[in-house]
Amino acid sequence: MILGMDMRERALQALLQPDPDQKAAAVAALYEAWQVHELPLAPQVVLREPLNAQGLSALPGRPQRPVLVPPRELPQRSPQTAQGHAALIHAVAHIEFNAINLALDAVWRFADLPPGFYADWLRVAHEEALHFRLLQAHLRTLGHAYGDFEAHDGLWMMTAKTATDVVARMALVPRLLEARGLDATPPMQARLARVGDTRAVEILEIILHDEVGHVEVGNRWFRYLCALQGLDPLTHFRWLARHYGAPRLKPPFNLDARRRAGFEEAELSALHQTD
């Protein structure tokens, strides 16, 4: 335990950690300390964003690899090949690593919110770290490790765009970008089942179960914040998506998982409308 630091400061220190395995371990230690009430929480404190030598944000801490490229430059590989199979697992591991970062960022960055907000996002960070560890272990059985394949930075880019607006963060990261995982996971499980990777299918089932809860956290706090500000959630979501240049959503949609994650029928009916 780092003496003198509250839960949010510890979350910032974990976010700064560049090594993925050490970051996951730091999150596990932080979550355990929080669970046994060893950490204070100071929601009112405004923490300062750490900067690097160039005066730019030092966040998030991440390793030199994987090499980050625009999504259109990612090589297309078939999961029927050994390389393509490993690359697909790597892509999911990269999403989960970024999900650790965005959950930690929500904990430290946004002040003056109810204690439950910070507890929720710390739990999300803990579960994302567990997902990453499962995928990292599985990737190693395929002769690879996190960092071996190129990746893109779309999830963190939206996290950075919404750094000054917690309502936009809740709208566009968990309930838009992360919710895409609810849609994408069943088809991915089918692809991995076809190549006989039953362990990956099992891991993705764990992830899908937990991600429903993570998207629900985003939905719940988005609606709470909209209510505080007198905003209509559906109307404001459309405005935010347009204002921040969020990607347009395309089918197929996992409507059952989205309902369990707290999306209302009006939102499900309007999934194709982001403008």
| Residues in helix, % | 55-70%
Q: How would you spell out the order of helices and strands?
A: HHHHHHHHHH
Beta-strand proportion: under 5%
Q: What is the subunit arrangement here?
A: single chain
Q: What does this protein look like?
A:
This protein has helices at residues 7-16, 20-35, 82-109, 115-141, 154-161, 166-194, 198-228, 233-243, 255-260, 265-269. The protein is mainly α and 275 residues long. It is globular, with a radius of gyration of 18 Å. The mean pLDDT is 95.
What labels describe this entry?
62% helix, 275 residues, mainly alpha
Task: Please give the structural blueprint.
Blueprint: H1 7-16, H2 20-35, H3 82-109, H4 115-141, H5 154-161, H6 166-194, H7 198-228, H8 233-243, H9 255-260, H10 265-269
Briefly say what this structure is.
The protein has 275 residues and is an all-alpha fold. It has helices spanning 7-16, 20-35, 82-109, 115-141, 154-161, 166-194, 198-228, 233-243, 255-260, 265-269. Helices cover 62% and strands 0% of the residues.
